[in-house]
Amino acid sequence: TGYVTIDGIPIAMEGEKNLLELIRKAGIDLPTFCYYSELSVYGACRMCMVETKEGAMVAACSTQPKEGMEILTNTPRLRRHRKMILELLLAKHCRDCTICEKNGRCRLQELANRFGITRLRFPGDTEARPDASSRCITLDTGKCILCGDCVRMCSEVQNLGILTFRNRGSRMTLGTRDGKPLAKSGCVGCGQCAAVCPTGAIVVKNDRERVWEAIGDPDTKVIAQIAPAVRVAVAEELRCAPTDNILGKLVASMHRLGFDEVFDTCTGADLTVLEESAELIARLEENRDLPLFTSCCPAWVSYLKQKHPELVSHLSSCRSPMEMFAAVIREQYKSSRKNIVHVAVMPCTAKKEEAALERLKIGGIQQVDYVITTQELIRMIRECGILFSEIEPEGLDMPFGAATGAGTIFGTAGGVTEAVLRRLSSDKSPAALRELAFRGVRGAAGLKETEVSCMGRTLRIAAVSGLKNAEDLLTRIQEGEHYDFVEVMACPGGCAGGAGQPFAAGDSRRQRSKELYAADRMSSIKRSEENSLVLSLYGGLLKGKARKLLHTEHNG
Ligand code: HC1
Ligand code: SF4
C-alpha cells in the first residue's frame, strides 16, 4: 500500500515488483528492449530510465517502488538519454530496414521512429546533402526513389512546378527547377509533395524538440491552440473510435504532455468570421477590390503574391485565425511573470512559415512561437506513452474555451464561406442554417459556387481548393467574370487534407470533412456572432486594438 507520484499524479501501489510496472499502470508505455515481466530482470538496455525528484536517473525495471517516491518519466535529460541509446544502437546496426524480415515489426525501428531519430551523429553511408532551407519541408535526394509523385503534385495540382528531375540517366536526381534551395525557389510550403512522397526524401520539418524544451523550462508558460482539422485526423493513428470525444482527449493528452493552457483555434476562426464579414460589407458598400479573397491559408497568400501581385489588394487584411487568436492570447497574458511560448497545432506545413513572417510580428514579437503538425502532436503523445484510447477527455481552458460550429467547419474546404454566409444572413432561424448547408459550398469538388442575396443584391461566391483550381478561377476573374467573395485553400479538400495530417486519400479526406460537419451539428452555438466570449473581447481586450491585433498589411 501507499503511493508513488508519477509525473505529478499519485499512483497507488498494489504489489508491483518494480517502477516500470507501476508506470505502465499509470498509462505510460515506458520504452524498453529487455524487460519481460515473466522473465528475470536483466536491466541492460537502460531505455526505461526515469528521474527521481532528487535528479537521480534510475532504471525503472530494476527499482522497487517505495512510498512517497516522486518520479518523472519524460524530461529533456531522459529524452536525450533515450535518443543517445538509440543512436548508438543504430550506429552499429545494418540499416537495410526495407528488405529486413522484421521490417515493420522491429522494435529498434519502431522506437527510432517513436523518438524521432532522423539523423545520426555517426558516419552514415549517403552522400547527398539535405536541402533544409525551407521552414516547412526538408528535401533529401539521397532517399529519393525517383517516382516523381512530388513533381507531378507540385505542377499538376499546385501549379507551381518547383520540383523537377535534373540530369539524365544514372545521374538523374530530384531538385528544384532553377537549382536554387527550396526557400529561394518560390515554394509556398504547402507540403503536398511530402504528403505523397513514399520515402523519407521529402519530409515535414520537425519543431517538437523546441516545444519539449519550452515545456521543460519552469519559467515558461506554454500555451497551445488546436486547429479545427486536427481533431478529425488523429483517431486512426491513436487507435480510438472517431465517435469518441477526440478534442477532449487531445486536450487531456496535451495537459499531460505539460502544456499549461490549451485553447481551440475555432475561437480564432469566430473572430475571423466577424472581421472578414465586416470587411466584405465595407468593400461592397464602397464597391472596391471585389472579389474579396480569404487570407487564412498561408500557401495561397504566398502563391497570389508570387504569381499575381496585381491582385494582392483583393486579399483580406485579416490575419489568419491562428494569428488572430495568438495575438489575443498574448495580449491576455502580457503581464504574466513567466515567458510565454505559444504553440499552434496545425494540419498544415505552411503555417510553420507563416508564424515567422515579419509582417505578422507585433512590436517585433512573433505571436506564434512554434507550429507543430497533427503528426508531430501524435508523435509527442506516443513518445510519452499516453494511451489515447483510455485517457479521459478534459475541457478546454478558460478564459478562451468557447467556439462555435461556424469556427469548426473552417477545417474543410467551403467552411469559411459557409461560416461567413451564416454571419451575413439576416434570417437567424435553424431553417436558414439548414438551407445554407445545401447551397453548394459543401462537398469534395475543387471549385464550388453559390449565389446569395445580401444588401439588396445577389452576391456571387466561390470556394476553391488546390492551387491549380485557384489559378483557373483567377483566369476567369481576370477575363471579366464577377465574384464578390472567393475562399481559397491550397490543399485539396482544405485543411482537413493538409500535409501535416496523417496521410489520407480521397475517401478518408471526405470522412474528415463529414466529421467536421457532424461536430458543427452537435455544437450548441453555430454562428460566430453568437459567441459571447468573442463578443465580450470587443468591449474589453480588443478595445482600440482590433486593427493591430487582428489585421495585417500585405505589402509589408
Ligand atoms: Fe486551417 Fe484555419 S481552417 S487555415 O485550414 O483558417 O491550418 O484546421 O487552423 O489559421 O481556424 C489550418 C485548419 C486553421 C487558421 C482556422
Ligand atoms: Fe511544390 Fe508545395 Fe512541395 Fe513547395 S511544398 S515544392 S510548392 S508541392
UniProtKB/TrEMBL annotation:
An example molecular function term from Gene Ontology annotations: iron ion binding
4Fe-4S His(Cys)3-ligated-type domain boundaries: 77-116
Subcellular location: Membrane
PROSITE patterns listed in its UniProt record: 2FE2S_FER_2, 4FE4S_FER_1, 4FE4S_FER_2, 4FE4S_HC3, COMPLEX1_75K_1
Sorted UniProt keywords: 2Fe-2S, 4Fe-4S, Iron, Iron-sulfur, Membrane, Metal-binding, NAD, Repeat, Translocase
Cofactor(s) listed in the protein's UniProt record: [2Fe-2S] cluster; [4Fe-4S] cluster
GO BP of this protein: ATP synthesis coupled electron transport
Pfam family, one: Fe_hyd_lg_C
Residue ranges of every copy of the 4Fe-4S ferredoxin-type domain listed in the record: 135-165, 179-207
Aminoacyl-tRNA synthetase listed as a keyword: no
Predominant localisation class: membrane
SUPFAM superfamilies for the chain: 2Fe-2S ferredoxin-like, 4Fe-4S ferredoxins, Fe-only hydrogenase
Keyword Chloroplast appears in the UniProt entry: no
Domain 2Fe-2S ferredoxin-type: 1-77
One GO term describing the cellular component: membrane
PANTHER family according to UniProt: NITRATE, FORMATE, IRON DEHYDROGENASE
Similarity section: Belongs to the complex I 75 kDa subunit family.
Name of this chain's protein: NADH-quinone oxidoreductase subunit G
Native organism: Papillibacter cinnamivorans DSM 12816
